[in-house]
Design a protein that fits this description.
With 266 residues, this protein is of the alpha+beta class. It is built from three helices and 14 strands. It folds into two domains: 84 residues; 177 residues, Ribbon (Umud Fragment, subunit A), CATH 2.10.109.10.
């Protein structure tokens, strides 16, 4: 009987030990679950921050890219407006100096045009097109072209006696192009080229009258080097300094003719 009671007591002690072990295990398990939850929450918080940073980085990169291109465009437009720009030659009016599809660099920095400068000029017909021609007569001068196609200049304030034939190293005369004939003083003669724009009739010593053009204040008379195939001041009149866009200074295309085109053609 006593042995049974003793055994029963032993069983009770064992049960108590097991219960305590289970309690410890449950406590550890509870701690482990809390740690996992905290770790998972922390990881989720980090992931959310990472996505936020990525989104912020995307927009930051986007705005930086937009700003970069805006600056590039602004600089390009500023260069085009104030410094210079490339211009494509269209047609053969500047033959034998410049040819169709040549690229030339035009300097827009303020300067005073000189005789024989090659300049780009705003078109009198459209805002987008430009002419590229050579300055032949300066403000105040009178210009006329004789029947042999020679250019005569009368200085500002001068008379016919002061006139001189312009030494023109750039004029190109295509023999395949024949000028139309008109009647001057009742005689058939080679067409004088200032009829459309003449604002002064020049009477030569032999009595022949030839149309001339007087350049106004700040006005320039320009011609294409291809004298027989060029739309220029002979049909359009003079151009003011404001209408002159810039000074064509060198050729940038084709590469085998890169450089000072006037120097290479002298």
């Amino acid at each position: 009987m006593e042995e049974e009671i003793k055994k029963t007591g032993e069983v009770t002690e064992t049960d108590e030990t097991v219960t305590e072990a289970e309690a410890v295990t449950n406590e550890v398990s509870a701690d482990d679950t809390w740690f996992k939850r905290w770790k998972k929450k922390r990881a989720a918080k980090k992931e959310a921050q990472r996505k936020k940073d990525e989104a912020k980085g995307f927009w930051q990169n986007f705005f930086e890219t937009v700003l970069y291109f805006a600056i590039v465009i602004l600089v390009a437009l500023s260069i085009k407006k104030w410094i210079g720009q490339p211009v494509i030659v269209s047609g053969d009016s500047m033959k034998d100096t410049l040819f169709n599809y040549n690229f030339v660099w035009t300097n827009k920095i303020k300067y005073t045009p000189k005789r024989f400068d090659v300049v780009t000029i705003k078109s009198k017909k459209t805002n987008n097109d430009m002419y590229i021609k050579r300055v032949v007569a300066l403000p105040g001068e009178t210009i006329y072209v004789d029947l042999d196609e020679k250019i005569h200049i009368i200085p500002e304030g001068g008379t016919l006696a002061d006139s001189y034939v312009l030494e023109d190293p750039y004029g190109y005369f295509d023999d395949s192009i024949h000028l139309a004939n008109i009647s001057i003083n009742g005689e058939v003669a080679r067409k004088t080229v200032l009829n459309k724009v003449s604002n002064k009739l020049i009477e030569l010593e032999d009595g022949t009258k030839i149309p001339g053009y007087v350049c106004g204040e700040n006005e320039y008379f320009v011609m294409g080097d291809n004298r027989r195939n060029s739309q220029d001041s002979r049909s359009l009149g003079g151009f003011t300094r404001k209408e002159i866009v810039g000074h064509a200074v060198f050729r940038i295309w084709p590469l085998n003719k890169l450089g000072d085109f006037d120097k290479s053609n002298k």
